[in-house]
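dumping these here so i dont lose them again. two proteins, back to back, each one seq then C-alpha cells. dont judge the mess
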Amino acid sequence: MHSKVWPSKPRFWSKPKSCSGKGYTAVSITDIVNAVGITKPTLYYYFEDKETLFALVLVKMLEQGEAFLVKNHAQLNAQAGPADLEQALLSLASGYYELSPTSLVAIIRNATQHLNEQSSQKVFAAYDTHIVKPIEALFKAAQDQDLISKTDTRLLAYFFVSLLDSLTSGVPMQTTDTAPYEAQARQYISLLLNGLLKR
C-alpha cells in the first residue's frame, strides 16, 4: 500500500463493505469506485490493487463486528446463571444476524480463494481476534463461573460462530421478519446448552 492513509470517513468504509457481500470476483473496481463516489486513480493512489482493498475491507468489517458484538451482546455478569448465559447467547445470535446479513464463513472462504497467502492470513487473524475471541471469552466466563462443563472454549466459540453463520444463511436478504431466525436460534442454543450446562 502507498504511504497515504485511506480516509476514515464512514462513507469510504460503508460503501466498499456493501460490495464485499457479492464476493471478490463479482465486484469490479468500477463497482467500488462508483459505490464510493471516487475515481479509479484516487482508489489506486491508496491501494495498489483490488486484492489489497478487499483484504482491508474484510479486516475493517471484522474489527467493527467485534466492537458491535462486545458492546451490545457479549456480556455476562459475575452473578450470572444459566438463564443469563442463554440470554447472552441469544443476544449474540441477534447481533450476529444484524451484523452479518451475508455468511461470514463464505466471505472468509472467498478470501482464501482469491487473496494471496499474506492477505489471507491477515483476514483469518482478524476473524479470530475480532469475532471468535469475544465469543470464546463469553464461554470462558461461563466456565469460570462454573455454569458449563470444562471444555475447549476456543473450539466451542468456533462451533457457535458456525452455528450462527448457518442460521443466517437460511434467512432471505432484505427481510424484516426476524422471527423465524430468532426461533431457530433459540432452539439450537437450547440444544447446545443442554449439552454444556452443569446439572
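---- next one ----
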Amino acid sequence: MKNVFMILASLIFGLILFMPAANGLAQAAPASLRIVQTSPDAPRLDIFINGKKTVSDLSYQSISTYTNLPGGRYDLKIIPSSQAGAGDPVLDVPGIDLNDGSVNTLIVAGLFSDKSLSVLPLSDTSWNANTGTAKVRFIHTSPDAPSIDITVGSLGKVFSNISFKGVGQYMEVPAGSFNLKVNPTNNQNQTVLTKTLNFEAGKVYTVYAVGQLADRSLNTLVSVDNGVVASISSMPSAMPATGQGSSSQAQTGNWQLAWLLMLGSILSLSMFGLSRHYRRP
C-alpha cells in the first residue's frame, strides 16, 4: 500500500509541475502591427494605441516597424506630433481587432487639408515557401489619381481599374528587376509614373502608389512584409476582457482547465478507491 500511495503522490507532484509548462506551451502567438503614412500633406504624426504612444513622429512615406501586441481589440488615435499628445486626434479609430498570430498594416490615407484622412487596414503575409521567387501586391493610395492600371515588365498588367485605396492580392513573381508603368484606366496612352523595382528572392513586398497627380508627385513606396518586428520594452495591452478579446485565448484556457479537472478527478477517485480497498478486514 505504501508503494501505491508513493506512485499517486508522484503523479500529483508531476501534475503540479506540468501546469506552468502547459500554460507556456499553449500561449497564443502575438499579433504584429505597423503603420504606413501615405497622406502627402499630413504633418508628422504620433500613433497612440489604447492611450499609449506606440509610434512617434511618423512622416509622409514612412513605415513603422512591426510591433508585437497581444491578440485583442484596440483603440487607435492619431495626433500631430507638434501637439505633444495633448491635442484633438486627426483620426480616432475605435475597436480594431487583432487576432492572435496575425500580421497587420494600418495605412493612413487621404488628405489632411480637406479632412479626408482615413485608416485602411490590411492583412499581411510573412510567408514565402519558394526561396527562388518573391511575393508582391500593389495598393493605390494616391488621393487625387483616377482608377489606374499597373504594368510590370514581362509580368504584364498586374493591376486593372483600381480606384483609390484599392488593394491587389499577393502574387508570386520571379526574383529580379522589373520596370513598372502606371496608366489611368481611361487613358492607356498617358503614362503617369514609371519606376524600376527590384524584388529579392524569399521576400514579401507591398508597393504603394503614393503622391498626387495634380502636382506630378506620384511615386512608389515599397515595404517588406516579412521584415523585423520591433523590440520595445513595454507594449500596449488589449482592452479589458468584456467578451471582445481574443477567442482563442479563452478557448485555450477552457481546454487546459478541463484537462486539469479531469486528471484531478481521476487521481482523487483512485486514491479514494485504494484507501477503501486497504481498509477492508
